[in-house]
Design goal:
Layout: E1 8-9, E2 14-15, E3 29-36, E4 44-52, E5 64-70, H1 87-93, E6 100-105, E7 115-117, E8 130-135, E9 144-152, E10 155-157, E11 167-168, E12 176-185, E13 195-198, E14 205-208, E15 224-230, E16 235-240, E17 248-252, E18 258-259, E19 265-267, E20 272-282, E21 285-297
Antiparallel strand pairs: 1-3, 2-13, 3-4, 4-9, 5-6, 5-12, 6-7, 8-9, 10-11, 12-13, 12-14, 15-16, 16-19, 17-18, 17-20, 20-21
């Protein structure tokens, strides 16, 4: 669902740390990154595909895909707060709290977690806040292709003590988030990477949460939501959320009553579970949405 036109390749990266800059050698390292999201879910989905001539799985470091995310663009440092002098107080109160940094091992090898969260909140790298899957056939020190799929949950506030006080970032269509990534390429030398390829050095980039491209959309799609606004009077408000050019709406409330309003309010005469149908029509055709026994009044 993420088309090729949205892919970021090696040509988008620059090594601003080791001095390779844009002198890419795709026989040494070649990567492609795709990022997606699903409307209604506060998750970011990544597809990372990489060829490396030497895969390093050294247990303390090794090859990494690093991402940094500040979904609400609160800005500022995310590792060290210059106003907190004590190193460990800084770690537990600030590090990664308002923006998160993931060091993802590519691959982790035997016994390691898939990700090291560079912050005080390792819990964000585990279910139900993240998940992952690798595909590769090489061994330590060999060349080959790696495919990694994973998703993460961005947080506006992610404290050390766990998710109870955390605030998940709300992802909305057409909004901007701050995001960047780096690829740390170790070869034979475990102690030092030979390339630190990144999108934006020490800053993050603005990414827009795009709607689906037209080729993935139906010309007309029916959808609705509802709210019981007064249970004592069995009053239900229906909201049309259909997509496309629509000229008529037809509601069947499941109790023998109907409406042609776009956003009707209906009062049921008695208690029950009701099958509610919305039919919409426009220049490009017809569409229907049925919800079975979701509308319940007493």
């Amino acid at each position: 669902m993420v088309p090729d036109s949205y892919a970021y390749g090696t040509d988008q990266l620059s090594d601003t740390v080791m001095g390779n800059f844009t002198n890419h050698d795709r026989e040494d390292l070649d990567v492609t990154v795709r990022v997606g999201w699903v409307k209604g879910l506060n998750r970011l989905y990544f597809l990372y595909e990489a060829y490396d001539d030497y895969w390093n799985m050294y247990y303390k470091r090794g090859d990494l895909f690093e991402i940094a995310i500040d979904a609400d663009r609160s800005g500022g440092p995310n590792i060290a707060n210059p106003q907190i002098d004590d190193e460990w107080e800084n770690h537990f109160l600030f590090k990664g709290v308002h923006a998160q940094n993931y060091h993802i091992f590519t691959p982790p090898g035997e016994g390691r977690d898939w990700v090291f969260v560079w912050g005080c909140q390792p819990w964000i790298g585990r279910l139900p806040y993240a998940n992952h899957a690798y595909s590769y056939e090489f061994e330590e020190g060999e060349s080959g292709k790696l495919v990694l799929e994973f998703w993460i949950t961005p947080f506006d506030y992610a404290p050390y003590d766990g998710p109870e006080r955390a605030a998940v970032s709300k992802l909305e269509e057409n909004s901007l988030i701050a995001l960047s990534w780096s690829v740390l390429d170790y070869d034979e030398n475990h102690a030092e990477y030979e390339g630190f390829w990144n999108l934006s050095h020490e800053t993050l980039c603005a990414f827009r949460l795009m709607p689906l491209e037209p080729e993935y959309l139906k010309p007309l799609e029916a959808e609705y939501s509802f709210t019981v606004v007064d249970m004592d009077r069995r009053m239900v408000a229906f909201t049309d959320r259909s997509r496309g050019e629509i000229t008529s709406w037809s509601w069947d409330f499941g109790d023998g009553m109907s409406s042609t309003e776009q956003h009707p309010i209906h009062q049921y005469e008695g208690p029950g579970e009701f099958v509610v149908t919305l039919d919409v029509e426009g220049p490009k055709g017809k569409a229907r949405r049925i919800k079975v026994n979701q509308v319940v009044v007493k």
